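Task 17 of the worksheet. Students: predict the tertiary structure of the chain below and write it out as structure tokens. Keep your answer in the requested format; marks are given for formatting as well as content.
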Amino acid sequence: MIQGIGASDGIAIGKVYKYEPVEVVITREICQDVKAEQLKFDHSIKAGIEALEILKTKTENEMDAETAAIFGAHIEILRDPELAIAVADKIASEQVKAEYALKTVSDSFVAIFEAMEDAYIRERAADIKDVTRRVLMILKGVQSKGLSEIDEPIILVAKDLTPSDTALLNRELVLGFITDIGGRTSHSAIMARTMEIPAVVGTINGFDQLDNGDLVILDGVKGEIMIHPSEEDIQNYKEKIALLNREKSLWQACLGQKSTTKDFKDIDLAANIGSPEDIDGVIFNDGDGIGLYRTEFLYMGRKNFPTEDEQYESYKTVLEKMGEKPVVIRTLDIGGDKELSYFDMPKELNPFLGNRALRLCLQNMDMFKTQLRALLRAAIHGNLHIMFPMIATIDEFRKAKAVLYEVEQELEMEKIVYSKNYQTGIMIEIPAAALLADVFAKEVDFFSIGTNDLIQYTFAADRMNEHVSYLYQPYNPSLLKLIKMVTEAAHKEGKWVGMCGEMAGEIQALPLLIGLGLDELSMSAPSILRARYSLKQIDSIKAKGLADMALQACTQEEVKVLMDAFWNGK
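Model answer:
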């Protein structure tokens, strides 16, 4: 048995086909003519864009606009003047060939993204690699048959699959895929869900353990691969496939329906996004809003801060497309593992507990005000909710609100159109804020609980550190008590509470979160319809009973037993 991450629900039974893309070897070579090399690079970028536009159109026709938007983002990477300038500088200053200059610049961008703790942002490094590889193949004149050689039903096994690879998969022949690299938010995983191809990613060494022709069962629900299954195993999984297909049709039937519990309690099911390109996926999956827009993505992979107008256009796009639905936009959250190459941040012994997020913004007023100006200008286009991250004290929130008021006054004086019709709230990710939720609730419009950080700060355990990963306990009663404290404080003041961490998208946790009083859950867009269907199976009164029992438990294991019993109707 090989264990990985279930990235796309579904089960497939078939023979292994191992895929290894053509390797593009790049070495440092001196060029004889800098201008000619620059021209060669410009032509390769143009050819790359043309190829991507063809792929984008093909994907729109054969899949949907959401998936095609991935290649729209790839086109924007190639059109980014920052990339062109950096490569041109490298060619001119070092007199090297274009392919080496591009590879070097790309590697530096990739290193920045891969160092991020946020899984969504970290996996965007794959987009840069994919785009770079496409242009490098053009520069080197390398042709690749790729996946076109597949002529029979198979289960594809690769060390990694780029979005371009995934878009070219023949859904009639590729029954499922397995990769060593990737997570649920990687583009290949998102595309697999859109194409309804079962997928298991992050197997670490699955590629080396499997041989061409091996018969396997791929379980995209559990994230497992069974090698050389027996006839009995095959029959059991065929029955599971039939059951899963029936469930998927039920999920799709929830399109256009309200997100309510069995006893008609409304719960908003929103989506987490990182860029305007993600909005099509939210609309496709009928999200009730945007629960978290991570704006730091706008600041990364470039050489300087985005201008006010650039930010305004991004926020405007998201707000317009979502119409009257709420859009929660988090102000810049850098620091910790999120660094900007063009912004000199002091080195700290413990950056995760250091000068980051709102703390950093309050000390860099020009940067902060530029973003707030863009947000207030964009507010006229939709239902804006501004959220401040990494809040520990009420004074920090009051300072942020004061800056927001200053920005309003400046826009008034400059006669620039903006809107005062917006809400302000905070992320609850520091235990101090949760403990003082009753005070915050009197001054904020909403709370959004960021469980990823709240868990690691509550247990004083870095969730990326494998030695203490056992302390990453989302169902521990101590964490549940903090969540309950926040929801009770908010509701007492008539305010709403959302959750935007990984825990919000866990179907198993749904009744517990409903019972704890959450009003909104924000997750990856492809998870919304399944969550809506599951929500309709939950009675909110019984869910409250589950939460009450969980709050009296002593360990996470005890809470898991209670949740299993709830789902099993015991």
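Marker's comment: The longest helix spans residues 34-62. The domain at 34-140 is CATH 1.10.274.10 (Enzyme I; Chain A, domain 2).
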